[in-house]
Amino acid sequence: MATPEAQSSRRESRASGRTTARLLLVANLVPLAGLAVFGWRLTHALFVYWVELGLALVLYFGVVLFAQRESKPDQKRGGSYPGPIPFPRRSGSIRPVSWLPPIRYRNARYVPAASVIVTVIWLLSSRAFLEYPNFDVALGARAYAGEYVAYVVAAYSPEGLALAVVLFGVRLRFVSRDFFRRGLVERYSAAMLMEIPCRVALFWFGVLVALAPVALLVAATGAYPAIAGGLIAAIVVVSKLATDRALVRIRYRNDPGWFARLFAPNRREAEHGSETDRTVGARPRG
After folding, report:
1. Contact by Cβ (8 Å): 42, 229
2. CB 111 within 8 A of CB 64
3. Listed residue (120, 122, 136) closest to 52, CA to CA
4. Which of 25, 26, 207, 256 has the most CB atoms less than 10 A away?
5. Which residues contact 82 (CB under 8 A, 6 or more apart)?
6. Which three-class secondary structure state does DSSP give residue 179?
7. Regions in the chain scoring below 70 on pLDDT
C-alpha cells in the first residue's frame, strides 16, 4: 500500500501532467488562429503542425543519447524500433554542459537506422498534412512542379515556419523538464526511449494509410473536394492533439490509458528493476 507521501507525490505529478497537457493544447490551437490573423488557408495551419512534428521527432532522438540505463534489447521481445547498428562500440560518456546528464557513447548506435525510417515516414506524412486536405492547390500544381514540392510550397509561409519553431520551443521546455529535471533519462535505456519517436512515426503512417483511400477517391471522381479536405484536416488536427496529450500522459501516469499506451516504450527491460522504475511512464507489459 502506498504511503501518504507517495500518494501526495502521485497527485502532484498528475496535476503537473494535466497542466502540461492543457498548455500544449492551447499552443497547438494557435496555428488555427492564423486562419483569421494571417488569412491562411487550412493547409498553412497544417504546415505548422507537420514541421513541428518533425522537430519533435528530432528532439526525441536527442533525448535517446542521454539515456543512462544500459540497453538490453534481448529482453524487449517486440520493441518498436529497428535496433542498434554494430558501431560505435566505445564505452564511456561525454558531458558537454554541467546542467545536462552525460551523453553515453553506446546510445549513438540506436539512432542511425531508426532516424532513416522515421524521416522517411515523416516526409510521407506530409501527404496527410498538406496534400489530402488541399486538393485544389496540390493536385493542380502537378503540371509544372514535382508533386511533393508542389504541396509543400503551397502550404509554406514564413509566419508558419516561425510559429512551428515557437511551438517546438514550448515542447522543448516540457520535454527537457520531464526527462532531465525529473530524471526520466536515469530510468530509461536508449532502446526504450527510441521506441517513442518510432511509435509516433508508425502512428502517423497508419493515419496516412487510413486517409489514402478517401484522397484517391476524391482525386479520381472530383466529388466534394472541399468537404473531404475539411474532414481530413479535422482528423489530422485531432490526431495531432491526441498524440501530444498521449506523450505527456506516458511521462506522468502509470496507467496512461489505451491510446497513450500506443506510444509508451515496451518496458520489459525494467520488469526486474526498482518499484520506482516500474511506475514511470507506461504500465509494465507482460
Report:
1. yes
2. yes
3. 122
4. 256
5. 113, 114, 117, 198
6. helix
7. 1-15, 73-79, 88, 135-147, 267-286
Structure-block grid coordinates of residue 180: 532531465
What grid cell was written down for 28? 497547438
| Distance (Å, whole) CA 286 – CA 284 | 7
222 phi and psi angles, rounded to 5 deg: 70, 20
Residue carrying C-alpha cell 504511503: 3
Asked if 152 contacts 130 with a C-beta cutoff of 8 angstroms, the reply is yes
Read off the pTM.
0.85
What's the CA gap between 286 and 268, in Å, rounded? 7
Quote the distance between the C-alpha of residue 152 and its chain's center.
20
pLDDT value of residue 253? 83
Q: Are 158 and 78 in contact (CB under 8 A)?
A: no
DSSP class of 271? T
